[in-house]
Please model this.
Amino acid sequence: MKYYIIAGEASGDLHASNLMIALKSTDDQAQFYCWGGDKMQAAGGRLVEHYRNTAFMGFIEVVKNLKKIFRYIRTCKQSILETKPDVLILVDYPGFNLRIAEWAKSQHIKTVYYITPQVWAWHQSRVHNLGKWTDLLLVILPFEQAFFEKFGYKAHYTGHPLTDAIHKYVPDVTFIEKYSNSQIIALLPGSRKQEIQSILPVMLEAVSSSDLQILLAGAPSIPDSMYQEIINNMNMNDRCILVRDKTYDILSVARFALVGSGTATLETALFRVPQIVCYKASTISYHIAKRLIKIPYISLVNLISGKEVVRELIQNDLNTENIRFEIGQLYKNEQKIQQDYDDLKVKLGNAGASAKAAYLINQLVHNS
Model:
């Protein structure tokens, strides 16, 4: 079968690649056409466009790049028509993928939404669009299935695909041994250029006087030169080590972590590393989001747990003084945080999300 898969950022690339592997295990004739990243390409996908070119963060950034975004949407539609897939699989990335879903419905293309947009957080009216424009909704958070059912739409809870990714992780023994006796603080400032530029300098300044060894996890789509420029400007060359393609290895040896909001907060929790969640957007983007988003937390850790497990420093609260204070609190609360992480892991369930999603997708294609 032909599968056309669209993911728009690093986490989507990871989860889509694991889904592709699961699909190939039941379909040895599988052909994949992808908008995504290196992991999807490595899993056997023919990469049509890399997400590094299509990822825009924040309302202002999106408005500035509207012409480019609409051009990508047109290109994507044309590519789908040319490849004639048996099924279209949309992975998160709602600003782009919802437009594709609406169009695909008019073209009578079977469409699956895997990792549905967080409509429970904002724009709840979009739940109806998801229900009308897709043939299968696959959700990855425990409370999402009930949310869709409340509006009369059937959704299937697959479990969270991060459990699959971590289950497959094979440690780099040499790396682990190198840092096993060090007190490490991991910096995970995000995967988009805008968030790294706003968050990483504050992180570096906050830990500049710390005795902890600093390991910075480089995002796949961001060049070394961008990180090095920030590190140089902060005079942190002798303190901060940029590490590529080893985020899980870093988390395996880290005592604490400073993490940008997003999937990385959940990854850090599953490695049982006490963390501080750091978020900062442009002033206008932040105030627009604050009016629209109606949830008590921004991190997946706290949202799934239903309480504050990890401290969130948002916008003006994200400053050197607050980060240093909260690092001090991590020492005091380390055991309690890890106990809450264990409860979180139970809520998420065991590995197998990708296999379950692949099974449901195959059922859709073969039974309709």
In short: The first strand starts at residue 2 and ends at 7.
